[in-house]
Automatic annotation (TrEMBL):
Principal subcellular localization: nucleus
The family this protein is said to belong to: Belongs to the NOP16 family.
Gene Ontology biological process terms from the UniProt entry: ribosomal large subunit biogenesis
GO cellular component terms, A-Z: nucleolus
Native organism taxonomy: Eukaryota, Metazoa, Chordata, Craniata, Vertebrata
Organism for this UniProt entry: Pterocles burchelli
Classification via InterPro entries: Ribosome_biogenesis_Nop16 (IPR019002)
Residue stretches in coiled coil: none
Keywords tagged on the record: Nucleus
Highest taxon of source: Eukaryota
Localization in the cell: Nucleus, Nucleolus
Signal peptide: none
Name of the featured protein: Nucleolar protein 16
């Protein structure tokens, strides 16, 4: 969006990018130095090229600012996986072998795979898991 707002339609792509301080061709912007096989000496530094004037430095500054912002963690599980785990815990408790034989085990998960899915659910939603276990204990007490 920053580039879009600073874009001048009357100029070419190369001119627009040069004004913003961005490179049109990354191979020319950061050249790979050629090395001689025998002496491993550099042919040219690439610093001798003329510096271009950046007329719109705010574009690069705003893009760098956005890039440095911390990422939001959007770790979520699918509704199907949550329902699957809750069903297995509700009907089988901690018996993973029984869970593996359940008819709702459509993907034929092994007991270790089911245990891993339950642990992932515990890590992603610890409060929800505690409430769910508490409600199961409450149901057992109501039945007795």
């Amino acid at each position: 969006s920053h580039i879009r707002h600073a874009w001048d339609p009357t100029k070419s792509v190369a001119q627009n990018l040069a004004e913003m301080g961005l490179a049109e061709d990354p191979n020319k912007a950061v050249p790979i130095p050629r090395k001689r096989l025998l002496g491993m000496e550099m042919e040219g530094d690439g610093l001798e090229q003329g510096k271009k004037i950046v007329r719109k430095p705010y574009v690069v500054n705003e893009m760098e600012y956005e890039a440095n912002l911390p990422e939001k963690k959007s770790n979520t599980l699918s509704r199907d996986l949550i329902d699957y785990v809750r069903y297995m815990i509700q009907n089988h408790g901690e018996n993973y072998k029984e869970m593996a034989r359940d008819e709702k085990n459509y993907y034929q998960d092994t007991p270790k795979q089911i245990k891993r899915k339950i642990n992932v659910y515990k890590n992603f939603y610890p409060e929800e898991y505690k409430e769910f276990i508490a409600s199961l204990k409450q149901e057992k007490m109501d039945v007795q």
